[in-house]
Specification:
With 313 residues, this protein is mainly alpha-helical. It is built from twelve helices and no strands. 32% of the residues are buried.
Length: 313
């Protein structure tokens, strides 16, 4: 288990370095002259040249990368080119909003995806099984922003169960905080629920046809104990999907936050990309990937516990 853990840590670190390096060069290629976005189109060439010298973009790109990477290693994310505030402080101010929505979406996906998958796997051909397969087709075909708008119209405008837009800090009111993130989390979780349910359903049907399950039945084991064995063997597929879903949910949160007017990473990313604030974009990417690596590492440990064969891969 120790070797398995070390391999996952090393692979996560390599992923973080690769993504951070790639994002740096892609951001500079996509925004070759950030002074235009920072100063506006009315700025004179002299003003643009002065700002470029101030923020260091007039230096060779490799020199900029070395300076950024050497500071990043010691945890210095730099300062925003637009606001001159710390990148770390701005990102960590917005990150809890996004993480609260994504975490609730992960919980909803795991709970309801697991329940639907278990029922559909134990009763293939039943109504729930057919609903899961139909929903997996429909929900993946619908755009995320459209689903978000429908949820707002139904549950916020018509029924008035939840607020349509805005975010409430948990320190102000736990109930209002949950209400402000529920609809965004549901809109993110719908696709993940059906994917997890479909994966778990298929894995349980496959496992149920294995010889060891027939042996357990012949020995007279109770149905709950047989179901527990089925889950132990079928769960790794769903855990893998859940790990992949975390990356997708983070990306989807950027769109959902725009619909629900949440002051999270999505709004910060959108504003920074329009303004050419590359340090903010790099900080968002590195911190987000770090969270992805941590979550995937934890889920890999869970997968290794559920499936000992995964430890030798």
């Amino acid at each position: 288990m120790v070797g398995f853990t070390i391999k996952r840590l090393v692979s996560g670190l390599i992923l973080l370095i690769a993504v951070a390096t790639g994002t740096f060069f892609l951001a500079h290629f996509a925004i070759p002259d950030p002074t235009v976005g920072l100063l506006g189109t009315t700025a004179t060439p002299a003003q643009q040249a002065a700002l470029a010298h101030q923020i260091g973009t007039d230096r060779p790109l490799l020199v900029q990368f070395w300076d950024w990477a050497s500071r990043m290693v010691v945890g210095d994310f730099g300062t925003s080119w637009r606001s001159s505030l710390s990148v770390w402080s701005q990102v960590t101010l917005k990150l809890p909003v996004t993480l609260s929505v994504v975490t609730l979406a992960m919980i909803l996906s795991a709970v309801f995806g697991g329940l639907f998958g278990i029922v559909a796997g134990l009763r293939p051909g039943s109504i729930i099984d057919k609903v899961v397969k139909a929903a997996s087709v429909v929900l993946f075909a619908l755009p995320g922003f459209w689903v978000s708008l429908v949820l707002v119209i139904w549950f916020a405008v018509n029924l008035r169960w939840f607020p349509a837009v805005g975010y409430v800090q948990p320190g102000h009111s736990i109930g209002q905080w949950l209400g402000s993130i529920t609809l965004p989390a549901i809109s993110l979780a719908l696709g993940a629920i059906v994917m997890i349910a479909e994966q778990l359903r298929n894995a349980m049907i496959t496992t149920n046809n294995q010889d060891f399950v027939r042996t357990l039945r012949s020995r007279g084991l109770s149905r709950p104990r047989i179901v527990a064995h089925l889950l132990r063997n079928a769960a790794p597929a769903s855990v893998t999907v859940l790990a992949l879903m975390f990356v997708g949910l983070l990306g989807g949160a950027i769109v959902v936050e725009q619909v629900f007017a949440l002051p999270g990473i999505g709004a910060l990313t959108n504003g920074s990309s329009q303004n050419g604030d590359i340090p903010i974009l790099l900080g968002i990417t590195v911190i987000s990937v770090a969270f992805v690596v941590i979550v995937n590492f934890v889920l890999d440990l869970v997968l290794g516990w559920l499936n000992p064969k995964a430890r030798v891969q």
